[in-house]
Amino acid sequence: MGWFRRHLNWTAFLTALIWYIISGVSINLLQEEGAWLLVWLPCFVVSFLIYGWILQQKRRTLWWLFILFVPFGWVVFIGLENRSQVIDIVDSKVVTKPKDKSD
Description:
51% of the residues lie in helices and 12% in strands. The chain is mostly helical. It has one domain (2-98). It has a two-stranded antiparallel sheet. Strand 1 and strand 2 (93-98) form a beta hairpin. Helix 2 packs antiparallel against helix 3.
């Protein structure tokens, strides 16, 4: 879990990538009408939960989830500034500290 917390933008990118792959494969393989929805809908819900977690980690409002309804909205989502903390490496150790207002 620590890797995901330190790499929020990579988490968002990987979530989008996995969601696109699973939804694309399920639509192509499950040609029956409505069968692909059984795979697509749980993936959609899980990805929304992950994006909500990322927004909470970035100290952003959950209203930003609506940007995901725009095609390739996750690109804008990745560009959101992390307001929660600054991660720095001091003496080969990862140090988190509160973000200054001047940053």
